């Protein structure tokens, strides 16, 4: 029998309940490239992360690599483009811990933990339950927490695996992001600044940073924000030197 509803659904743009956007493309790899269109390269990893997001199974993902390799950019993109997301910055030692925050956000379906290796001891000890089936059982400050978050996924970043136990690591699909080569970094800088400045200026910013051994995309974007399309190469060099001569080269404490 001809099913009108089924035929209608087939021609409707694809949309998963966790994903805010609609997609006309039928192939997962094409949907992934559109979803992560603000990030340069890494097409294969984009596809797997997108498949993990739309899967009906609990798939936990961990991105590991040195600073300034787009780990956090992947997570902020996912946060912006998905529904029912709870974002937790583990490097922020002030405020409530992960357990208390999750208790107050029990309707979340996707937990993003940035710099998971910096989680507090109490939070780290309850992580296995969250990764297994969303169940958290823990006593803190004379309060006993015993709750479960249904259909949960956990996406996280880390600069290292050293502080994560083997049981925790085994519950993640781990993807390693290598430090940028000079060519990769230059391409990323030009990609991120392509709609802001002329290509030759974007390339110049990248080269100046490479020559100074500073392959940090966020720094490149920050410098790009100081410049205008009509600025000359001399302007670029001067702006860079103004910053480079005063940038922090070590951890200082004036207290």
From TrEMBL:
Pfam entry (one): AAA
Entries under InterPro entries matching the protein: ATPase_AAA_core, P-loop_NTPase
GO MF entry, a single one: ATP binding
Domain ATPase AAA-type core: 61-174
Origin superkingdom: Archaea
Gene3D superfamilies xref list: P-loop containing nucleotide triphosphate hydrolases
Transmembrane segments: none
Protein known as: ATPase AAA-type core domain-containing protein
Organism this protein belongs to: Candidatus Nitrosocosmicus franklandianus
């Amino acid at each position: 029998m001809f099913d009108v509803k089924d035929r209608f659904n087939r021609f409707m743009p694809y949309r998963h309940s966790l994903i805010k956007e609609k997609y006309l493309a039928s192939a997962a790899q094409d949907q992934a490239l559109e979803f992560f269109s603000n990030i340069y390269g890494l097409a294969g990893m984009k596809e797997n992360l997108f498949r993990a997001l739309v899967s009906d199974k609990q798939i936990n993902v961990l991105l590991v690599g040195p600073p300034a390799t787009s780990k956090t950019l992947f997570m902020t993109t996912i946060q912006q483009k998905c529904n029912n997301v709870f974002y937790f910055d583990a490097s922020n030692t002030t405020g409530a811990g992960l357990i208390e925050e999750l208790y107050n956000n029990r309707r979340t379906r996707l937990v993003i933990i940035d710099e998971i290796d910096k989680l507090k001891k109490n939070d780290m000890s309850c992580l296995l339950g969250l990764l297994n089936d969303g169940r958290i059982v823990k006593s803190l400050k004379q309060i006993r927490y015993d709750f479960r978050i249904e259909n949960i996924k956990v996406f996280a970043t880390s600069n290292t695996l050293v502080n994560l136990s083997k049981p925790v690591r085994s519950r993640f699909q781990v993807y390693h992001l290598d430090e940028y080569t000079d060519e990769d970094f230059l391409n990323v800088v030009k990609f991120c600044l392509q709609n802001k400045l002329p290509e030759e200026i974007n390339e110049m910013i990248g080269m100046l940073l490479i020559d100074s051994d500073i392959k940090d995309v966020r720094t490149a974007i920050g410098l790009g924000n100081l410049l205008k399309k009509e600025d000359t190469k001399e302007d670029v060099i001067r702006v860079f030197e103004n910053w480079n001569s005063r940038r922090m080269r070590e951890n200082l404490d004036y207290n």
